[in-house]
Amino acid sequence: MQGNRGPQQNHGPNRPEDPKKPGGTNTNGQQPEPSEQTPNEALTLDLQSFRKPGEKTFTQRSRLFVGNLPTGITEADLEKLFAKYGKASEIFINKDRGFGFIRLETRIIAEIARAELDDTPFRGRPIRVRFATHGAALSVKNLPDFVSNELLEEAFGAFGQIERAVVIVDDRGRPTGKGIVEYTSKPAARKALDKCSDGAYLLTAFPRPVTVEPMDQCDDEEGLSEKLIVKNQQYQKEREQPPRFAQPGSFEYEYAMRWKALMEMEKQQYEMVDRNMKEAQEKLEAEMEAARHEHQVMLMRQDLLRRQEELRRMEELHSQEVQKRKQAELRQEEERRRREEEMRMRNEEMMKRQQEGFRGNFPENREQEMRMHMGNHGMAMNRNSLGGNSGPASTAGMAAENTSMMAGPGNNNMPGGGGGGGAGGFPRGLPGAGDYGPNKQRRF
Q1: Nearest CA to 225 among 107, 128, 110?
Q2: CA-to-CA distance for 209 and 284, rounded, in angstroms?
Q3: How far apart are CA 364 and CA 131, in angstroms?
Q4: CA–CA distance, 150 with 167 (Å, rounded to integer)
């Protein structure tokens, strides 16, 4: 990676091989400053071209470690050194130990900055630029085969804000059962670690819990260069001879074979453990599948019993409703019969009263009619018998006669007909009381 340093790897529009304009100006029209500045300070990057759609910015993955800094450097100096790569969101410097941290916008920009500035002289000292370790990263193992990056982020997002969640796959794109979850803060990672360590955290319907551990930070890109190795006495002893094959029959060959046998035994032990673990996993899966079926059958039985209980309760409610309806119908029928009986009795009583009233009024009406009829006949007879009598005297005698006839006692059919010669009797020349009896008729 050292061959990628210097101005030859600048990604800006101005490159050293670009032709410059007359008058000592470059393509940007800027005058070259005679001061001691690195070529990176006069160049800028088009940051928009290094930003992926939807990519999170200023994450922990874009945080760089800068070592071997000269004494007396400030945050402003470090920010000026990385000014070409955009505005930084975090700058920290430990002046006593000569290192610092800086956070850039995206991961790609941080990779470019690391490739260009690593081992670059800065104020007489070559600086070291590496990615800072992620203190809030977790390693997730025993992942089911159908867990994706999105599901992993959704599952572990319940413990805090996530910067990145990735399911590790092999070269064929098949899941390896491992994943990486990176949080924005250490408290969130610690919370997720505590929660998942205490209980069995399940990501899918298959009840296989995942294993969460702190992630081991490894630099698998830069590695260990020769200049970083401490050259002590053990280093000198190890480097006395170059790489070679041990010759058969020699001391080196004998112990090399013994080391090889030990590694073979270790390999066999690992294979045996893996085989036993695989058999145990298959057995557990079979038992779990059988238990799942049994659990489903139990749930179905419980659901059937619940449905039967609901059906029985509904039948009871229906029977109670039918009984209430029958009772209501019986009460209505009884009420109807009672009203009909009352109506019948009322009609009978009314008819009886009408009959009694008709019987009581009939004799009185008949007697009144007969009296009026007899009174009319008596007046005619008096007029005939008296003949020529006229005047007031005859009128007064007729009135007296009519009065005596109406007021005097007699039988029921002839009012005013009393006994012979009495006060209420007829005058002389008229029939007497003996002529009116129950079996006799009046004669004129």
Answers
A1: 128
A2: 13
A3: 138
A4: 9
H/E stretch holding 64: strand 63-67
Task: Indicate the residue type of 219.
Answer: D
The Cα 373–Cα 442 span in angstroms is: 13
Helix (H) or strand (E) holding 197: helix 186-198
In whole angstroms, how far apart are CA 406 and each of 53, 169, 334, 426?
Answer: 136, 142, 61, 11
SS3 content of the chain, % helix, strand, coil (to 5): 50, 10, 40
Any residues with CB less than 8 A from the CB of 85 and at least 6 apart, and which?
A: 45, 47, 104, 105, 109, 110, 112, 113
Q: 311 pLDDT exceeds 50?
A: yes
d(CA 74, CA 92): 9
Surface-to-core class of residue 348, CB atoms within 10 Å of its CB (0-12 exposed, 13-18 middle, 19+ buried): exposed
Q: Are the beta carbons of 370 and 386 closer than 8 angstroms? A: no
Start-to-end C-alpha separation, the chain: 172
Q: What is the DSSP string of 139-183?
A: EEES--TT--HHHHHHHHGGGS-EEEEEEEE-TTS-EEEEEEEEE
CA-based angle 417:422:424, to the nearest 5? 45
pLDDT digits (tens, 9 = 90+) for 46-87: 666 667 777 778 888 888 999 989 888 888 999 999 988 888
pTM of the model: 0.50
| Tokens standing for residue 238 | 């190890």
Strands 90-94 and 99-103: antiparallel
Q: Quick count: other Cβ atoms within 10 Å of Cβ 307?
A: 10
The confidence score (pLDDT) of residue 11 equals: 42
Going by C-alpha positions, the residue among 102, 11, 5 that lies closest to residue 48 is 11
Angle at 131 between CA 45 and CA 153, to 5 degrees: 95
Identify which of 163, 51, 63 has the alpha carbon closest to the alpha carbon of residue 113: 63
Length of the chain (residues)? 444
**Alpha carbon distance 32, 10 (integer Å):** 17
Q: State the number of CA atoms in the 13 A half-sphere of 395 facing the CB.
A: 2
Residue type, 201: Y
Sign of CA dihedral 167, 172, 174, 176: negative
Tens digit of pLDDT for each residue in 173-189? 899 999 999 998 889 99
